[in-house]
Amino acid sequence: MVNKNFWELAYFLRITPWSSDELPIELKDFLEKNKNSIKSYLDIGCGTGSAVVNILKLGIKSVGIDISINAIKLAKDRYKKIKLSCQFYNADITNFDQISKLNLGKFDLVTDMGCFHSLPDKDDSRQKYVNSLLSLTKVGSYYLQWSFPKFRIRPIGPIGVEKIEIERLFSNYFDIIKIKNRSSLGFGRMMYIEMLRVK
Ligand SMILES: C[S@@+](CC[C@H](N)C(=O)[O-])C[C@H]1O[C@@H](n2cnc3c(N)ncnc32)[C@H](O)[C@@H]1O
User: For ligand 1, atom 24, which residue shows the shortest CA distance?
Assistant: First the structure.
């Protein structure tokens, strides 16, 4: 089961095959097209923080949050080494009170590369995620998500997402601009979903 303990252990052992120093192609393309309108950026489930650091280098205020204390330690360490001032917080995106207390404000761009799809789908975790996301965005904010689709048989790893679920949870507030079945992440098997907040 993919829960907080799983993430802590993975980062403790440094077994994090999902980590990359490169931004995904879709995010590079997005930034190229929207570079003038994006002034603030949040990465949900930022892991060791490479996207946050890469985007800060473009002159955009960048923040990362992650449920794993070990991941945030690694991210802070990395930022110390390269002397950049980005902010990393240990927080659970499904915990609205915890997120509110951070007082992060609203972001022009929010990404999720592999966090949402690992949340349980049989309780209200995913709805709680959306509640926090709404508090961190405003009309005009972009939200980009990379997720594995739901597999019929998946004994290990993230639960994944279904398009119908994305529509149900997000479309009251977000226009779904783009859904690509394959992306540059997860060996090409992750979906890429681009959304714009309209309400
Ligand atoms: C597959 S990893 C991807 C990490 C990073 N985005 C990357 O691409 O390297 C998923 C991340 O989501 C984080 N995560 C899982 N559940 C979370 C939650 N409820 N709140 C915040 N972060 C969470 C995990 O700790 C982990 O770092």
Answer: 45
Q: Where are the domains of the chain?
A: 4-197
For the sheet containing 87-90, what is the strand order?
87-90, 61-66, 40-44, 109-113, 142-147, 191-197, 174-180
Give the residue, out of 99, 115, 131, 144, with the most ligand 1 atoms within 8 A of its beta carbon, to mutate for a pocket test.
Answer: 115
Half-sphere exposure of 51 (CA within 13 A, CB side): 28
**CB of 53 shorter than 6 A to ligand 1:** no
User: What would the pLDDT profile of 9-51 be if each residue is shown by its tens digit?
Assistant: 999 999 999 999 999 999 999 999 998 999 999 999 999 999 9
- DSSP H helices in the chain: 4-13, 25-34, 50-56, 69-81, 96-102, 125-136, 163-170
Question: Nearest to residue 26, comparing CAs of 199, 182, 171, 169?
Answer: 182
Q: State the Cα torsion 152-157-163-166 to the nearest 10°.
A: 140
CATH class of 4-197: alpha beta
Alpha-carbon torsion (175, 180, 183, 188), positive or negative? positive
Ligand 1 nearest-atom number relative to CA 19: 9
Its pTM stands at 0.96
Q: Which of 13-22, 82-91, 107-116, 121-130 has the lowest mean pLDDT?
A: 82-91
